[in-house]
Backbone:
């Protein structure tokens, strides 16, 4: 089957490494340059999609989306509730003298620092990906801003594929 395909990928190193590995296998190539692959769009600066939206200036649309999804005070309530709580645990170099297991350290949420509000927005987005997607898409569509550049690039590739198929039909 000759089915056209596209990949829109997060840009974190781990994700790109796996993507390159998979593309080498699927395309039967020894080397893959993601920037040169016509059917791949990868987010810049190690961003996942949520961080990409923040970096691309969609903070207001994100707030609007959470207001529509929950309430006008949702973000402030989440910040009050979760500031200072455990975000994740990281492995330290230390081990327990008795059981010899690795010792982990809590990484706490800090929403009171300079970039704390953006971090809270990010945490809220990543914890609700399934519900948040359609609502943020609508908020961006209803705003006067252009779509994010990488989304425009993806739609450009989709358009090119559809034009090729139309010409072949």
Residues:
């Amino acid at each position: 089957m000759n089915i056209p395909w596209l990949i829109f990928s997060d840009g974190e190193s781990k994700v790109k490494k796996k993507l390159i590995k998979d593309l080498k296998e699927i395309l039967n190539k020894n080397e893959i340059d993601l920037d040169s692959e016509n059917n791949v769009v990868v987010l810049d600066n190690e961003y996942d999609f949520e961080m990409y939206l923040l970096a691309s200036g969609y903070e207001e649309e994100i707030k609007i989306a959470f207001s529509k999804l929950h309430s006008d005070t949702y973000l402030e309530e989440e910040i009050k509730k979760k500031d200072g709580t455990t975000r994740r645990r990281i492995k330290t170099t230390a081990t327990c003298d008795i059981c010899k297991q690795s010792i982990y350290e809590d990484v706490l949420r800090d929403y009171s620092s300079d970039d704390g509000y953006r971090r809270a927005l990010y945490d809220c987005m990543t914890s609700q990906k399934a519900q948040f997607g359609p609502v943020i898409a609508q908020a961006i569509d209803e705003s006067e801003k252009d779509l994010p550049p990488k989304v425009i690039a993806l739609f450009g590739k989709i358009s090119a594929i559809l034009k090729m198929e139309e010409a072949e039909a």
Notes: Helices lie at 13-27, 49-55, 59-69, 74-82, 116-126, 129-142, 149-168. Residues 111 and 117 are 6 Å apart (CA to CA). DSSP finds seven helices and four strands in the chain. The mean pLDDT is 93.
